[in-house]
Amino acid sequence: MLPDQWIVQQLVRLFLWRYAPCLKKELAFIHDHAVYGRLVHLKTLLGGCGEHVRLREGIQVIHPEKVFLGNFVDIGENCLIMGTGGVTIGDYCILANNTIIATTSHQVGGLYYGHDQTAPVVLGENVWTGSGVIILPGVTIGDNSIIGAGAVVTQEIPANKIALGVPARPVRDVPLDPVLRQAHVDALKAGVSIPEQSAP
Predict the structure, then answer these.
(1) Which residue in the list 52, 106, 115, 184 is annotated as catalytic?
(2) Annotated domain spans of the chain
(3) Which tens digit of pLDDT belongs to each residue from 97-130?
(4) What is this structure's pTM?
(5) 106 annotated active-site
(6) Following CA atoms 91, 96, 100, 101 in sequence, which dihedral angle do they give, to the nearest 10 degrees?
(7) 149 Cβ neighbours under 8 A, 6+ residues apart
(8) Any idea which fold 45-170 has?
(9) Whose CA is closest to 104, among 124, 94, 119?
(10) What whole-number distance in Å separates Cα of residue 58 and Cα of residue 145?
């Protein structure tokens, strides 16, 4: 190694030792700001977007102009919404990370390439999908339903049901407390935090 190269190498090491913590914080801020800006811009591209909607990092939306989100919707990290056939997500819905909503399929029996079929997906109010759920074209999920992690939803899920499995099947009713639900809705609208409740 030449003496000049050694001096430059030592100066770079000194610089990094002295300024790396500051640079790390600055780069993290720039990254967070860029992600935030992208998500804010995505909201303007949607066909409709209610108030208090949270879009997490890594979300992808194909044909956002055909996607409609209600109020108080939370879409988790790395979700994919393919809006080609139309997607409507009602108020108070939560999509956990890695949820996929597909609205495009292919005609069976002929050539698959170039023969797309689309069908809308509709999630009612207060629907919760667990991590890694896949919702296929033409599916409607009723109000207050819960879809278990990893389920593949191929057909309609009625309101107030817990559905699990591949393909997803309703296994039991959601234990609803209308008074508690209304108290949560009122608290959200008033901007008051909801107290956590212990499990039964």
Answers:
(1) 106
(2) 45-170
(3) 999 999 999 888 878 887 889 999 999 999 999 9
(4) 0.79
(5) yes
(6) -10
(7) 96, 130, 131, 132, 133
(8) UDP N-Acetylglucosamine Acyltransferase; domain 1 (2.160.10)
(9) 119
(10) 25
